[in-house]
Amino acid sequence: MSSPVAAQTASSAWFCEDFDLDRYFERIGYTGSAEPTFQTLRELQLADSTSIPWENIEMFLGRPAVLEPPAILDKITVGRRGLTCEEHTTLFAAALAALGFHVECRSARVRMGAEKITGLSHAVVWAQVDGTAYWCDVGFGTGPLEPVRLADGARGRAGVWEHAVRWERGEWVLAGKTAEGWIDFSSFADVPRYPVDNLYTNHFLSTHPRSPFRKTPRASRMDESHAVLLQGGELVVSTADEVLSRTEVSAEDTLPVLAEEFGVHLCEQDQALVVARIRDMRDTPRFDTPEAVLG
Prior knowledge:
GO terms for molecular function: acetyltransferase activity. Belongs to the arylamine N-acetyltransferase family. It comes from Segniliparus rugosus (strain ATCC BAA-974 / DSM 45345 / CCUG 50838 / CIP 108380 / JCM 13579 / CDC 945). Pfam families: Acetyltransf_2. It contains nine helices and 13 strands. The chain is of the alpha+beta class. A hairpin with a 4-residue loop joins strand 12 and strand 13. The longest helix is centred in the N-terminal third of the chain and has 15 residues. The N terminus and C terminus are likely disordered.
């Protein structure tokens, strides 16, 4: 007799019986096919990645996110908020599973040019269509807008953004073209990740005092022409070739920037908490964050 654990596959683990596909489609403005084809996967990831911003306000305030798909859907609809990596990966995987895709997830290392080995603090969606596997990194914030085929030397392009995949020392590595040139974004080994793994990563990044996401409000969004990033009290607008603008953002201006640039709206209580914590962090001496913490 097989155990419940043995019966749960890496794909079925992401299926959510209560997931409201119609509500998800409405939120991201998707009106295409619901058939589990590559074209559906491509159009769905593009709509999702250009509609839902990345933001870390819960982590910044030390509150681990609720990683149940219905709660995540409430957050981006009723709450008018963005998502972190673990939230976004969970949401997209649940949507693909509901559509009948073979979908799994992988634990990834954020590189962003780091020369040392970084921790498994990131999660990506792995989807298979007609025997071909694709890397769908909806939770990176400024990652690929479309699926990237998992094959050594494979390349992809969506608008101005170019990406390339290579196999290196037992891991798939994703590189992307940025205003600073080509850099390695992230990497992962071909080992399944499960929802419970997201809980551990989410808790660590939300509560560890040296988590980079506890230091400053961050948010990002992108489309096929440019990306907008809020980080370290600065708003940066860039393309794949150049930085278009840099604007300093004060503690008080952070709230309207989150709302106007990213569509992230906070309740009055959280608004006060965010401004107070920004001021506190800017008055506190900084320390270096070990690269192993980055995610």
